[in-house]
Structures are given as C-alpha cells and as structure tokens.
Design brief:
InterPro entries: AraC_XylS_family_regulators, DUF6597, HTH_AraC, HTH_AraC-typ_CS. By secondary structure, the protein is an alpha+beta fold. It is built from ten helices and six strands. It has two domains: 124 residues, no CATH class; 94 residues, Homeodomain-like (Arc Repressor Mutant, subunit A). Helix content is 44%, strand content 12%. The radius of gyration is 18 Å and the shape is globular.
Length: 239
Amino acid sequence: MYAERPSRLAGAVVWTNAPSGSPARPVLPDGCMDLLWHEGRLLVAGPDTRAYAVDGVPGRWAGVRFFPGTAPTLLGVPAHELRDRRVDLADLWPARRARSLTARVAAAAGPARGVEEAALALAADSGPADPLAARIVAALQAGRSVAATADGLGVGARRLHRRSLAAFGYGPKTLARVLRLQRALALARGGTPLAETAALAGFADQAHLTRDIRRLTGLPPRELLGPAVHGTTGGGPRG
C-alpha cells in the first residue's frame, strides 16, 4: 500500500510503500528525484524520461520526493548523471559519508521519519538550490513555451538548456512535456473528460494527448488511468 504526506522540507513529499498483493504500479515521469530507503540501503532515484517498472523489487520502501530542481544541490550530483537510474548513495558519495547518513536513517523511529530527517540534514548542510530552477518550473507549469520561458527569464536558449540538464536531468523541452503530462493526469483523474483535459493541459487535441501519454508512459490513457496505476500526480513509489 502506498501513502504520502507533505514533508517538513519545503516542496518535498514523504512516501511509503509496502507490498499489498496488487499489481506493481509504474513510476511515471514527474521531473523529480527521490532519496530512497529499502532493506537497509539508501538509494537515489534520478529523473525519469519514461515509466519505470518496479516489478521484481519486493519489500517495504520509504522515500522523500524532492521538488524538481532541488535534489542536485542537496546530493552534489548533476541530475543528468542520474537520468533514468536508481543508484546506491554509496556509489555517489565517499563511503564514510554514505555510511553515516545510512546509519542515521536506520537509527530513526521508522524509515519514513529517518529518510525525511536525512533530507533535512542534507538541506541544512548544503547551499540554496539554483534559483533559476524554480522559475523554470513555474514558467513551464504555467504552459509557457521554452522560447517564452527563456525570454521571460532573460537567459539564452543554450544557458537554459545547460541549467535544465543540471537541475532536472533533461532539457526544458522534455521537462515541459513531463509537467504537461502531470497536469493532464491530475485533470483526468479528477474526472475531467479527456478531450477537455487535452485542451486545459495545453495539448493541441485529444490525439496529441494520447500520443504523448504513450511516448512517456508506454500505456494508453484508459489503461494508465485505471485502478492499477497510482492516482497521485507525484509519480508514486520510486523503487
């Protein structure tokens, strides 16, 4: 069973997932990165460009899903190096530092609290996230084009692309598609008909929405929005 709640870390979400006997739900692209706890290990889930299947990874999970663009500063790793990957924290950090944070999570009153405290500690020890990242997200979430976003932020297209790769793991055009997908899923899961969802989310028409959903998730809309797929816009568990 999957559950989530807002984190004490601004913009982040704490989630847990335990085996329930139901079919495993794919993790959908959402522009986010996660710090994961599973069977005594700390891992990092990089930004996804496609649905990630979690089949064959049993056991209980806990995680913190960071707001898009914030995790690279906390972890000290550019997002594009982790794109479409799940990596042990020990493979990214010096062994002693990774062991220290892992021990901190293990000693906490439950994995969810432990991984949240670890995220808060990372935030306290690191500098502020790239301020441009949040402005990029806000512009693209509002449905602005990549060109309009660059103009509005006063940056050139190449600089926007470089900063996006480091903060989100992919360029602004892909990030815009991912954020648009999440807008559409939120509308559709709230009961908005697909044709209206397509218009409100910024697609040319319903056929455009259907094509983009298939490209990013590998599933048709009707199957994606069925009961076997997690219903939040946050992307679900990241194991």
